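Slide 14.
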Amino acid sequence: MLQTLYDYFWWERLWLPVNLTWADLEDRDGRVYAKASDLYITLPLALLFLIIRYFFELYVATPLAALLNVKEKTRLRAPLNPTLEHFYLTSGKQPKQAEVELLSRQSGLSGRQVERWFRRRRNQDRPSLLKKFREASWRFTFYLIAFIAGMAVIVDKPWFYDMRKVWEGYPIQSMIPSQYWYYMIELSFYWSLLFSIASDVKRKDFKEQIIHHVATIILISFSWFASYVRAGTLIMALHDSSDYLLESAKMFNYAGWKNTCNNIFIVFAIVFIITRLVILPFWILHCTLVYPLELYPAFFGYYFFNFMMGVLQLLHIFWAYLILRMAHKFITGKLVEDERSDREETESSEGEEAAAGGGAKSRPLANGHPILNNNHRKND
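Slide 15: predicted structure.
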């Protein structure tokens, strides 16, 4: 049974054009071709990335945060209360009014005290400013190095300038070591992002991030199986071209360098729109949709690869909408915050302040770090 499934999964008609077999892609005469077994190394490399990230954040990002004066205010912790804690963990983090009244009777606290406890407890679970800075520093470092390395791999190749040469000789296209390592490192990094996503900073597009990571891993892996390596290197370099700008903007945002953050964000928005909404669909996607059909009939791999490209393109449109909405607020002078960030809650609400009355002057207490402008995030 397992052998039948294995044979069907690796059936040539799924992965290769008609009249071609895996035997045609066996190494010979000093020419090396992409093989599925090459990707086994990406899982241990992903674990190595997680180890490197741990030490990078500890010995590089943390001192850098101190150098840039990234400060963290002490958060007021919710006092120990088994009744409220049990509800928080099992039923929800934002109780409705009827639930607040019930919890008030069960815990012996007033309704206002229950609401305050839940605000403090929610703030405890929000990531610290230092955690955000360290995560952005790690991603900035990788994306910048990956972009430079990717350009070094493809800038001297003829298909970088003439998209039709992407398919010249396909699929019997030999591979060079730089392409191999570019693929292995990029795929390993995205595996590491998927492994760490549960502990990384969570934002409102958490589900979209998971879809993006899975789609990227599938695309990179499939393009390797099906010898779409030339197209794959172009796509990976294109994505890295804007990602490091975003992460650097976030770093300066967390450090409180508002003007620097704003300027980098504008550059990022321009590069993102040009690369993801112009070059990718009208050059790269056109290259993978139209040119192959001039050489061979469409097969499953052709449809699958372009379907996954379509999924990525839809995510790009979604993130472009968030970016443009932020840019509009920025241009019109409104406060710009990360459209996907979870806002820190203050210790007191306006309603509670008014209720305090009695001529006493009260104001909300800052509970945790303040939200800075332009804290935009996109993890493509």
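Speaker note: Residues 78 and 110 are 15 Å apart (CA to CA).
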